[in-house]
Amino acid sequence: MAVGSSPRAVVADDSHFMRSVISDILEEGGIDVVAAAKNGREAVDAVAETDPDVVTMDVEMPEMNGIEATDRIMSTRPTPILMLSAHTDENADVTFQALEKGAVDFFRKPGGEVSMEMSRMQDQLVDIVASVAAVDPTDSSDVASARTAGSGVDAAGVGTDGTTGTETTGPDAGAATTEYVDDPTVVIGSSTGGPTVVEQVLSDLPLAADLRVLVIQHMPSGFTGRFAERLDARSEYSVREAADGDRIGGGEALIAAGDYHMEVTGYRRGRLRVGLTQDPPVNNVRPAVDVTMETAAERVTDPLAGVILTGMGEDGAVGIRAIHEAGGYTVAQDEATSAVFGMPKRAIETGCVDGVAPVNDVAAAILDAFEVT
Asked: Where, per the database record, does this protein carry 4-aspartylphosphate (predicted)?
């Protein structure tokens, strides 16, 4: 996309009404809709013909669904894709599969009185489509290859970009001989492009570190439960969606529930308690990373780390400052591996970030903070 030009979009949806509504919203928001498609096959053809900056992709469509279309597009002409998913368990599962195929993020399609609800969400939709359009669609393959190619850490334990890391190619190497501090807690925040990145980071954390993990991913209700199940299956940690009053100890993780802020309400003897609220959005989002990080900084009395991953906006910057001022360790994902370098950039600009790391080194940076030296 040329600097200063309007993003060019393909809108794919099997509903003529939804294609029209989405196209009108994007056009009014300054995004040029260059083609509309009523199924996945037409979407693949439209991308080949128009070379857009972004595709909004419905999940369920006839002839070819959103997953297969995403797979085809990412294989033949990589293009940033935003999935538009209805609020159902089945669509949640399919949406995460689309993210695995290379889609950048997803946006929940409205239900009920569609035109009224979509109008209310139009600013959010335009913002996320514009952010996704700015993503380099080839980065995902670079990140994936980096996971197996090594961490770029030299013999002195210093990354080639100047960041610190481990001397191994993964946090599990030497885990049996590594000693960690007692009762460590890590709070991880992310947004656009975050689900697959959070999955990688959590899967890279060994159970031997005995972490208490809190994850805040900007994600609507109806999806965070499935997200927690996926993380539980792909990591050594016991992961679940947070419920009001939940308590966790070492080896456990909570995912903030969609549409609820997750506050740390208590901490004693290595046991952490959370509460859920529907207080007004913070930074225009709920759950907000700042809410969890600030309350963790106030109440957690043992070693604490805060991590900001890819995402648009500034959520997490205030929380990172709070954790830093409480004596905790702070990490931000680097620009090269962030789908959207908004949240990490704002965190870094506070001057309170201790380390900046590519996604495949984030887990190692967290572990470095908690190793006994």
From this structure: 58
Q: Which two tokens mark 191?
A: 């947004």
In a domain, residue 1? The reply is no
Q: Are the CB atoms for 166 and 368 separated by under 8 Å?
A: yes
Backbone angles phi, psi at 217, to 5 degrees: -110, 125
Distance CA 179, CA 259 (A): 38
Contacts of 112 (CB under 8 A, 6+ apart): none
**Cβ contact 204:140 at 8 Å:** no
* Total residue length of the chain: 373
- What's the rounded Cα separation, in Å, for the pair 30 and 25? 9
CATH number of the CATH domain containing 110: 3.40.50.2300
Whether 243 contacts 257, CB under 8 Å: yes
Domain that holds residue 223: 140-370
Is residue 171 one of the residues assigned to a domain? yes
Q: Which residue among 136, 154, 179 closes a domain?
A: 136
DSSP for residue 78? -
Indicate whether 93 belongs to any domain: yes
* pTM for this prediction: 0.83
32 is catalytic: no
pLDDT bin (cut points 50, 70, 90) of residue 221 is confident
Give me the amino acid identity at 215. V
Task: Look up residue 111 and give its amino acid.
Answer: G
Computed over every residue of the chain, the mean pLDDT equals: 87
What's the whole-number mean pLDDT along residues 67-74? 96
**Selected catalytic residue, list 105, 139, 290, 315:** 315
- Tell me which of 191, 235, 290, 368 is the catalytic residue: 191
Concerning whether 191 is annotated as a catalytic residue, the answer is: yes
Has residue 10 got a pLDDT over 60? yes
Catalytic option among 23, 218, 324, 368: 218
